[in-house]
Amino acid sequence: MLNILIPDFRVIAPELLLTATAMIIILWEMINRTRSHAVSANLALVGSVAALAATVASWNLNVSTFGDSLVLDPYASFFKVIFLAGLILSVSLSMKYIQESGVRYHAEYYALMVLATVGMMIMAMGRELITIFIGLELLSMPLYILAGFFRKEIRSNEAGFKYFVLGSFATGIMLFGMSYIYGVSGSTHLQVIARTLYRHPSAYADKALLLGLLLVIVGFGFKISVVPFHQWTPDVYEGAPTPVTAFMSAGPKAAGLAALIRILVEGLPRMAQEWELIVAILSVLTMTVGNLTALRQTNIKRMLAYSSIAHVGYILIAVVASVGGRADLGFSAVMFYLLSYTFMNIGAFGIIVFMKREGIANENLDDFTGLSWRSPGAAIAMLVFLFSLAGIPPTAGFAAKLSVFFAAIQGEYYWLAIIGILNSAVAAYYYLRIVVLMYMKEPEKELGKATSSPLLWTGISLALVGTLYFGILPGGFLEKARIAVSILLKV
Amino acid sequence: MGLPEIFFYYFAIMAVVTAGFAVTRPNPVYSVLFLVACFFHVAGLFVLLGAEFLAALQILVQAGALMVLYLFVVFLFNLSEAKTARIVHRQAGFAGIVSLILVALMVIFSVQGVFRGPFRELVRPQTTDNVSYVAGALFTDFLLPFELASLVLLVVLFGAIVLGKREEGE
Fold it and tell me: Which chain B residues are Cβ-neighbours of A160 within 8 angstroms?
């Protein structure tokens, strides 16, 4: 007889809320035909704030359900807060931008963003390979569509198409790797995999298992744009609508890392020696190539694309550092870095959205010349975001980099820490170049008139508050991340 | 070599060969037809593994329904250009070398490993018939991914509308 247990719905309450929000957005537009962007955007905001409240309310839960394929622990909750913060900020940036673009399908736009967030949350909670895979699909499909959302613009088409083809390829590689892990261990449940491997240590010597692990790392590496699987990133970031770029620069990367870390910790706990060196090499490559290429960019979206690649490199330092004894330090640095990065990077993209005037994008670095004369508020905000991205105190970026390098030193990976610090110095050059343009040069050409948008400024202010708060008082969230990781490691 | 092995090697080799043809044929209609052949041979592998239900689904859904859809799409496009287009990219040489190295590594890893793991003993003897076994897995252990797949389909539906629907004046 089938043994059907009633699942614990507390675990997926925020996901249910978000899914319902997406349905309501679509149905509202279908029934009322208001063509009003405000309604869709506000519904998305209300839904994501409610989901955020539900996530925070169930912070201390540690339960698994659906036949142990989902688990809600503080580790997952922390990541869910990151995703929802990213969603709220990106939706705030979207309204003006999408409205002015004259695209008709705004309800679908917001619904897709909300559903992509559901996919991320499933990935962070998934304790079973197929669930993680479906979460990844639910995350990727909306992003492919959103990247190509401006279907009359050839760059947006290119972005959507490129992302789709390469993304599907990477998904296939990851799935192939998962099939090897299943083949060796006989299960897709991470804990069963770990138990089986524990009982049959000879399986660790099986090269098929190593091959599976490598393919999974490659698949996730593509999704979080690790060099050498990063080729798609600049084109997609440049071509996609700016708020979509902001959205996919933060949440999806956090989701990929969340799932990868859970697979490494819960499913294959004794393989650290195997992936340590590989991830370290990937980290160095990612930082260095990202930063050196960012130096030569003239388009700010492309520059931020390469900078986001470089940031993933710093995060991978912390992943490697977790091998050296203090795993809690390493992984909590990953989580805190991703949280900080969400705020500072989406904030910077908010300023790029602000720069779009009268249908002209103004995305070249020259367009920032003399911004402090024209719009001092935007220039100050951009200054903070760029300082944070460069890692200058008292901003979130500084605290995040500090925690990563501290973890590396505690784990005795001195060479990684040194390469990371050298890279930050290179990165400071291209971030501060924009600051110089904004503050030390008179405006050269006239840009169009800015249309004010309260929601856009709310989003930028929220990002600004977050960037400064995590910079000045990082302790609270770092401690929360550390506790969450120690609960994860105990399993 | 017993009869099952002979069938296994036939299905496995033919699946790889037809997949290769599906990728390399310049005419998309031939590509799709080779893909159908590939799916049939994979279905044969499923039968050998005792998964008759999956084999039937593979033929009905993959080889049947989906392939008819692909063929329609191929017919709807004007493909006279695609037939003559050069399909060998200038990076093909490099890509070929990298792929060969990868395949070689996979073969070496798989043969060295020979799946020494506990896989064999973990294949549970089937106590029920195929359909109830699949249903049991779908509605208990894999209930959540099964339901989530419906959300993925919904998203793709949105995508078709957003990217494909004709607007006024187009």
Answer: 163
Residue A166 contacts B where some CB pair is shorter than 8 Å = no
Predicted confidence (pLDDT) per residue in B53-100, tens digit: 888 998 998 888 888 888 888 788 766 655 556 566 778 888 889 889
| Mean pLDDT within A247-267 | 93
pTM exceeding 0.80 = yes
Q: Check residue A198 and give its pLDDT.
A: 86
pLDDT, mean over chain A = 90
Our CA-based measurement puts residue B70 at a distance from the nearest CA of chain A, in whole angstroms, of: 17
- How many CB atoms are closer than 10 A to CB B87? 12
DSSP state of B124: P
Residue holding tokens 């719009």? A375
Query: CB within 8 A of A294, min separation 6: which ones?
Result: A303, A306, A307, A309, A310, A427, A430
Residue type, A293: T
Is the pLDDT at A51 greater than 90? The verdict is yes
Specify the amino acid at residue B109: F
- The alpha carbon of residue B151 is apart from the nearest alpha carbon of chain A, in Å, by 7
Rounded Cα gap, residues B169 and A451, in angstroms:
29
C-alpha closest to that of A14 among A44, A56, A67: A56
Cβ A361 vs Cβ A353: under 8 Å? no
ipTM of the complex: 0.88
